[in-house]
Design a protein that fits this description.
The chain folds into 3 domains: 446 residues, MFS general substrate transporter like domains (Growth Hormone, Chain: A, Up-down Bundle), CATH 1.20.1250.20; 58 residues; 71 residues, no CATH class. The protein is mostly helical and 584 residues long. Helices cover 74% and strands 2% of the residues.
């Protein structure tokens, strides 16, 4: 049963139990974050929703983003609560809540709009559970493993977090192929039940709880409001507004972006004056901590939206152009992204192991440089590319991210005193999740801007060549770029939605067949899509280079241990009754 353990109880047996259980939890939560992307077509068919109907696009986004928003908003709060009431105890709570959310999702009983709202609510429940898991897993591992093995342990855990996102794409494709949408959520239930019981029985509290600390109420409120307002602004900024193809001039969007930014500025000030802050700003005086989190945030910005864009590229454009039916594109798209996961799984453990011996800086920095090279290589591909160069470039990006993730996580967690590990773990996870969410908003904005500039002309030319009348061409050419993008993501053929059967019957059979065929719409949206995607790849390249510079400037690595009473850190955090061990 659970209890409080000392450093002397950090046995070889227990540390591997901690690693396996926390890795299972993080893997389950991260798989869930992406499994939905691939399976959206079968899910919406199951609840009888046509996401291309008016007013559905924003709800569709929240089905995808509700999980990540809830997780990001609550990570630091839960990390702080864990320092106060026990990391293992709240980690167990997270496993149970996540499992409950999965059960509720699989039991979604309503159809249409009500069913969509239930999916959003239950996804938020899952996100709450995931916040407990993400905010505590790294702290539990840092408590359980000695400093010279944390790189490997945190690296494997980080691989589960990022690799799980890729696994979710493949698993979502496999489950979508069955046609039974409830399996998308039921697959988590047995894992969650086993993990909950196992964590309760096997994990031990190894850190001293801060019983006299208070919860930072105003910090929690301003952080939650700030992140939520920013995400609302980013989400509705890519929606049409009035005569505009995007909503950046909407008063509500501007209010969300400006108000959210002000709330985050207020949050940062509150954390410097409150007695028991949830976000310990003085930790940023530790160079390894601040540089590691900056490079983590930038790397998340660089790759977070990439997965969405790759799936749209494959599922909505490339695969249909190669004759793959829309029903089969989810599975094929998941399989085609596997090289990225393979590269990550190859590089991650090796990098974590070597960084324990030689330090984090060279591996983390080299990983971001390699990722930047991968983004440059993707820029060379045409819309209708050959698969093997695409696979090789994804593998290079996966290797780069694997080289970066393990050492960087270990360096961040090693740099803080044990009593701050819960909140430090939450802060690290917050930077990663916030970067991923902002990346999605940025990537969507860039690609939709490219579509808005080039898609109407492409549709007009293509439809006119097939003999459609001017008014009908104008109607279809005014298709909102957001709707076109989600049509590609969901494997829908807008031509079948927008062209009445009476119009098709007036056309020669050959032309009608071409217009509603699998490759006509992907052929039209492909070149405009690539205009925006190329800009997104350039931004990812630039962010990766800046992340590499931040990683290079992390300085010497210090590892805090719990067996001494003296601190020799180059950037002390108050009075810390610990001894730090300098590494390369």
């Amino acid at each position: 049963m659970q209890g409080t353990a000392t450093l002397s109880q950090r046995s070889t047996f227990y540390k591997w139990i901690a690693l396996s259980n926390t890795t299972l939890g993080v893997l389950m939560a991260s798989i869930n974050g992406t499994i939905l992307i691939i399976a959206l077509p079968v899910i919406f068919k199951g609840i009888q929703v046509d996401p291309l109907n008016g007013g559905q696009t924003s709800l569709l986004l929240w089905v995808m983003l509700g999980f990540n928003v809830a997780t990001t908003v609550l990570l630091v709060t839960f990390g702080r609560l864990s320092d106060m009431f026990g990391r293992v105890r709240l980690y167990n709570v997270g496993f149970a809540i996540f499992t409950l959310g999965s059960i509720l999702l699989s039991l979604t009983w309503s159809k249409g709009l009500n069913g969509e709202m239930e999916l959003i609510i239950f996804r938020v429940v899952q996100g709450i559970g995931a916040a407990f898991l993400f905010s505590n897993s790294a702290a539990i591992l840092t408590d359980a493993f000695p400093g010279n093995q944390r790189g490997l342990a945190l690296g494997l855990n980080q691989i589960a977090g990022i690799g799980g996102g890729v696994i979710g794409l493949v698993l979502g494709g496999l489950l979508a192929a069955t046609g039974h949408w409830r399996w998308i959520f039921l697959v988590n239930v047995p894992i969650g039940l086993v993990g909950t019981v196992w964590a309760y029985v096997a994990l031990k509290e190894m850190a001293t709880q801060e019983k006299n600390s208070k919860l930072d109420f105003w910090g929690n409120i301003t952080l939650a409001v700030g992140i939520t307002a920013l995400m609302l602004g980013l989400t509705y900024g890519i929606m049409p507004y009035g005569p505009h193809s995007m909503g950046w001039t909407s008063p509500w969007v501007l209010s969300g972006l400006i108000g959210g930014s002000l709330c985050l500025v207020l949050f940062a000030w509150i954390e410097t004056v409150v007695e028991d802050p949830m976000f310990h700003m003085h930790l940023f005086r530790i160079r390894a901590f601040s540089a590691g989190n900056i490079s983590l945030f930038l790397s998340s910005l660089a790759r977070g939206g990439l997965q969405f864009m790759l799936i749209i590229w494959l599922q909505g454009i490339w695969l249909p152009m190669h004759g793959v039916s829309y029903a089969d594109t989810p599975l094929r798209a998941g399989i085609d992204t596997l090289p990225q996961m393979v590269g990550f799984l190859v590089a991650g453990p090796i990098s974590g192991y070597l960084s324990d011996r030689f330090g984090a800086r060279v591996f983390a920095t080299g990983g971001m440089v390699l990722s930047a090279i991968g983004f440059l290589l993707l820029l060379t591909l045409p819309v209708n590319f050959s698969y093997w160069p695409f696979a090789i470039y994804l593998f290079i990006i996966g290797v780069g991210m694997g080289l970066f993730a393990s050492p960087n996580s270990a360096a961040i967690m090693n740099s803080v005193p044990p009593k701050y590990r819960g909140v430090a773990s939450g802060m690290r996870a917050t930077f990663m999740n916030a970067g991923q969410m902002m990346s999605m908003g940025i990537f969507f904005t860039i690609v939709i801007s490219g579509l808005a500039a080039h898609l109407p002309a492409a549709l007009t030319t293509g439809l006119t060549q097939q003999g459609l009348s001017g008014p009908m061409v104008q109607k279809i050419a005014s298709l909102p770029p957001t709707a076109a993008l989600f049509a590609a993501l969901l494997g829908y053929n807008p031509m079948q939605h927008l062209l009445p059967a009476t119009v098709l019957h007036t056309l020669p059979l050959h032309q009608a067949t071409v217009i509603v065929g699998e490759s006509f719409f992907p052929g039209l949206i492909g070149p405009p899509f690539m205009h925006g995607l190329a800009d997104a790849f350039w931004i990812s390249f630039g962010l990766s280079i800046v992340a590499a510079i931040a990683s290079l400037l992390r300085g010497k690595q210090f590892v805090y241990e719990e067996d001494g009473a003296e601190s020799t850190s180059e950037a002390p955090v108050g009075h810390v009754e610990l001894r730090s061990v300098q590494k390369h």
